[in-house]
Design goal:
This protein is α+β, with helices and mostly antiparallel strands and 106 residues long. It is 14% helix and 21% strand. The N and C termini lie far apart (29 Å).
């Protein structure tokens, strides 16, 4: 089962096993982690699950869909490492991925 390391807004980390086929957002919401609000429930329409994915972790996921890219384009605080956690579905071959949850909903 893949593992997701969440770097939380308060500086702490939380490591969660998330079944393949579920999203990084699912793992956060199901474990009541702070910072990933997920207002739209994972339908790629609100950007309240914004995270930063860097380095080797980014390679575990495909490129953003056009819908995700559109939301990220207008998101305050977005960087080239920005992704929406609802769109980061864990593949079966993922071992460990790390994401940073930004502070202040950025």
């Amino acid at each position: 089962m893949p593992t997701v390391v969440y770097r939380l807004p308060d500086g702490s980390t939380s490591t969660v096993d998330v079944p393949a086929g579920q999203s990084v957002m699912d793992g956060s919401v199901r474990n009541n982690l702070p910072g990933i609000v997920a207002e739209c429930g994972g339908s790629c329409s609100c950007a309240t699950c914004h995270v930063f994915v860097e380095g080797d972790s980014a390679a575990a996921f495909g490129d953003p869909t056009p819908e995700e890219a559109d939301l990220l384009e207008f998101l305050e605080g977005a960087t080239p490492c920005s992704r929406l956690a609802c769109q980061l579905v864990l593949p079966s071959d993922a071992v460990t991925v790390s994401v940073t949850v930004p502070t202040n909903g950025q």
